[in-house]
Amino acid sequence: MPSGDVPPAVPPPAVDLEGVAVGYGGQTVLRDLSLTVPRGSFVGIVGPSGSGKTTLLRLLTGRAARHQGRVEVLGRAVQPSNVPAGVGYVPQLEAVDWEFPVTVEQVVLLGEAATSAPVPWFSRGEKQRARALLERLGLGGLERRRIRELSGGQRQRMFLARALLRDAELLLLDEPTSGVDLATRRDVLELLGQLHHEGLTVVLTTHDLNFVAAHLPRVVCLNQVITADGPPAEVLTPDALQRTFGAPLQVLRDGDRIVVVDAEQVELHDAAAHRRDPVHHDPARHDPSRHDPARHDPARQEDGPRRDGRQGHDEVELPW
Ligand SMILES: Nc1ncnc2c1ncn2[C@@H]1O[C@H](COP(=O)(O)OP(=O)(O)O)[C@@H](O)[C@H]1O
Ligand SMILES: [Mg+2]
């Protein structure tokens, strides 16, 4: 390039990982990780329980125990134990101690404390902004509520308000589709769609393959390493799913739409239907949406929250 020519300013990707390994103690949880998420993407990370989804998000928020390799978020190297500027994190609801005696407003504002003041004392301007955001997210009037009184969807939106108050450009959400009912899931998804439309980069983890297949343009399959990466209709193949989940999964295709089902259940269903009605076999029985969702998503069966509502090895996540 002749000197004097300035290359067009391409903003650095939202996430840029190269040759990354992450572990706890002596155990390596993620390895050979190279991943680029351009700004403005909407990406779903799927993998079974223990595959390292939460660890990956922790890495991006500077909270992974130890790591090697290049970890850049929004063009800057991530520093240990600092949530990078411009990053909003929505923890998995089951990982939060909801009995902690704080109000919605405190949680939302404490997200701001890291960037504005060393003590949790907030200006009127900060409070007004927080209230406006809560209003926008449908939480108007709930500022003084204790967090334990919120519904699942409200809890998630509270963390989204916290992220937006930090002027997040990159939203990281850990399992936003788990622990909430279907209507809430749809609301949260709609809200994420809007935020994405406004220019935010969204990266979420989930073990719900069909959610990703139906709604997101890009899926990254993870099980210690990246096992597949691309548009769901291309990468969610039985082979890739076997590599990721270690279980035989079947992919039903209808044009661009795909539905992933547990191959063993399809076989059992087929056999049962055949025994009941060997001639008139009702095709609706194959409709996986008629299965119990907890059963038709094979990854989910092993990935539910523990009875005490906390994740196996995860530390309890306080809401700030
Ligand atoms: N704080 C921790 N200390 C030690 N091991 C951990 C910790 N958090 C997670 N792990 C281990 O790291 C692996 C990946 O966990 P995690 O990232 O939580 O997976 P996922 O979110 O996909 O379920 C698991 O084997 C888990 O036991
Ligand atoms: Mg997790």
Describe the structure.
The relative contact order is 0.15. Strand 11 (about 250-255) and strand 12 form a beta hairpin. It is globular and about 55 Å long. The chain has helices at about 55-60, 105-115, 125-135, 150-165, 180-195, 210-215, 230-235, 240-245, 265-275, 295, 300; strands at about 15-25, 25-35, 40-45, 65-75, 75, 85-90, 170-175, 200-205, 220-225, 225-230, 250-255, 255-260. It is of the alpha/beta class and about 325 residues long. Mean pLDDT is about 80; it is low at about 110-120 and about 280-320. The strands form three sheets. It has a six-stranded mixed sheet with strand order 6-7-8-3-9-10, sandwiched between helices. The chain is built from eleven helices and twelve strands. Helix 3 (about 125-135) crosses helix 4 (about 150-165). The protein has a domain at about 15-85 and about 170-230: Rossmann fold (3-Layer(aba) Sandwich). Helix content is about 35%, strand content about 25%. Magnesium ion binds near residues 53, 54, 92 and 174. Adenosine-5'-diphosphate binds near residues 24, 50 and 314.
| Helix content percent band | 25-40%
What would CATH call the class of the domain at 15-86 and 169-232? Answer: Alpha Beta
| Proportion of residues in extended strands | 15-25%
CATH homologous superfamily of the domain at 15-86 and 169-232 - what is it? Answer: P-loop containing nucleotide triphosphate hydrolases
Low-pLDDT runs: 112-118, 278-320
Predict the CATH topology of the domain at 15-86 and 169-232.
Answer: Rossmann fold
Summing up helix and strand content along with how strands pair, one would put the structural category as alpha/beta
Q: Which whole number gives the mean pLDDT?
A: 81
Distance between the termini: 47 Å
Strand order in the sheet with the most strands: 6-7-8-3-9-10
Which radius of gyration do the C-alpha atoms yield? Answer: 21 Å
- Tell me about the biggest sheet? 6 strands, mixed
What ions, cofactors and ligands are bound? adenosine-5'-diphosphate, magnesium ion
Number of helices: 11
Would you list the SSEs in sequence order as H and E? EEEHEEEHHHEHEHEEHHEEHHH
- How many distinct beta strands? 12
Shape: globular
- CATH architecture descriptor name of the domain at 15-86 and 169-232: 3-Layer(aba) Sandwich
